[in-house]
Structure formats: C-alpha cells, structure tokens
Automatic annotation (TrEMBL):
Mop domain residues: 122-188, 194-260
Keyword match Glycosyltransferase: no
Keywords: Molybdenum, Repeat, Transport
InterPro entries: LysR_HTH_N, Mo/tungstate-bd_C_term_dom, ModE, Molybdate_resp_trans_reg, Mop_domain, Transp-assoc_OB_typ1, WH-like_DNA-bd_sf, WH_DNA-bd_sf
Top-rank taxon, per record: Bacteria
Any one biological process term the GO annotation gives: molybdate ion transport
Gene3D superfamilies: 2.40.50.100, Winged helix-like DNA-binding domain superfamily/Winged helix DNA-binding domain
Presence of keyword Isomerase: no
UniProt cross-references to SUPFAM superfamilies, sorted A to Z: MOP-like, Winged helix' DNA-binding domain
Organism: Desulfoprunum benzoelyticum
Matching PANTHER family: DNA-BINDING TRANSCRIPTIONAL DUAL REGULATOR MODE, TRANSCRIPTIONAL REGULATOR MODE
Protein name: Molybdate transport system regulatory protein
GO terms of molecular function: DNA-binding transcription factor activity; molybdenum ion binding
Amino acid sequence: MPISTTLRHMLGWVGENDTSIRLLESIDACGSINRAARHVGLSYKAAWEKIETLNNLSTTPLVIRQVGGSGGGGTVLTEEGRGLLRKVAILRREFAAFVGFLGERPDEALNALKMLRRFEMKVSARNVWAGTVAAIEQGAVNSVITVALKGGDTVVAVITDNSVHRLGLAPGMEVLAMVKAPSVLLGRDVRREQLSARNVLPGKVARIVPGVVNDEVIIDLPGGNTVTAINTCESVRRLGLQPGVEVAAIFKASSVLLAVV
C-alpha cells in the first residue's frame, strides 16, 4: 500500500473525495443546501442529515439556517465552519510534508484531524453527539455517565463498569454519545419529575419528514445540537407537531451508547 494511502487511513483523512468537506465547500460557495446537495451528488434529505450530523459532532455548529434578508435567507457556514475549511486547505497543501506540518502546528492539525475522523465514522444510530465526560457515578455493576454537550445540553448514559474501564472513561475525556432515532419519544408540556427516563431534552421542531407509517422529526436544542426521533404518523398528528412547536425529546439512559475516537 502506498505510504500516502497508509497515512490517510491512519489519520482518517480521505482527501479530496471527502463528501462532508465537499458539501461544506459547496454550501460556502452557493449559500444553498439544495444546490450544494446536487453538486456533491446527494439528495436534499441526505444533505440535511449529513449537516445535522456534522453540527452534532462539532464543538460549535458548522452550518446554520439564515432567515430573511435581501437574498431571502439560505444556508451558510459559521465562522467555525469556514475555519475548518481553512484547516482542511492547509492539510491538502501540506500533506506531502505532514510530519513537518504536525511539528509546526500540532494542536491545530490534530484538532482538525480528530473532527474529520468523527465525520468518517459510520454507525447505524441517527443521533451522534460529541461531548465530554462530566461525571461518573460508579455502582456495583453499572455506572451512570453524564456527558456534557455543547451549549449546556447534557446526556446521561448507563453502561457497565466493565465498559467504563474498557473505554478508559474519566472526567474531561472526549466521547461520542449515540441514540437510535426509534428510541426517542416525544412529548409536549412534559414535567421531568413525572418521568422515569433520565434524558429529557426540550427544544423546538425544526422539520418533519413524513412517511407512510412513521414520521421523522428533527428537533433543534437550545445548545445547538439536533435530535432526530422516529414516531408514528398518528403520534405526530396527535401531538400537533409542526416546525416551531416546542417539544421534548425523551429517551432512557440505557438507550445511550458511548464511544471514544
């Protein structure tokens, strides 16, 4: 295997063919998710799903919706998103001499590479958030892990003590928290103290993707993350859900999986 290919594999960097980076570049160029999706060969829905995943995996949102204005609004990169593209441009230019680049700006290079590795990770869970371990409560068999997400949101997971040791979890450590969309329940006017579920995340409906039996509901959280839930069409109708409606995403701590990169 050529050394450049080996190094790309070790770093989790696929170069110019990275769909996530090409999508960010296209959004930055045209300011339209629709045109950017067509340019990189994605459907509109697939492009939005990728953007939501990228925003969840980044410490701050990379892409935001811009409403109104003389151009009628659109989709734009944040300063963090443009900063990432600048770092990627550096990696592209300096890849042949990466060891020298790493020696000059180790923190900047490693932070960009760590984010790229998150983007390339493939899991079946629809919800994947980047965070840090805030607290660990150890029990006889299981431990309760509190994960701090960006913007003040938190997620609680219950995993075995063996898993805590195997992952090497400790306060302050970076982790990924994952929850499957069917495990997320939705509720309005929810009182946390009346629920057994540890995770109750209030937010607003961003959009709804209708289906024949189930609808996909994407919720914007105050901290900048999104949560995706798959509920029956009847439940969505009964709750009166539509964009802008306040709703709580509810899931058990046992439904949360943790991973380290």
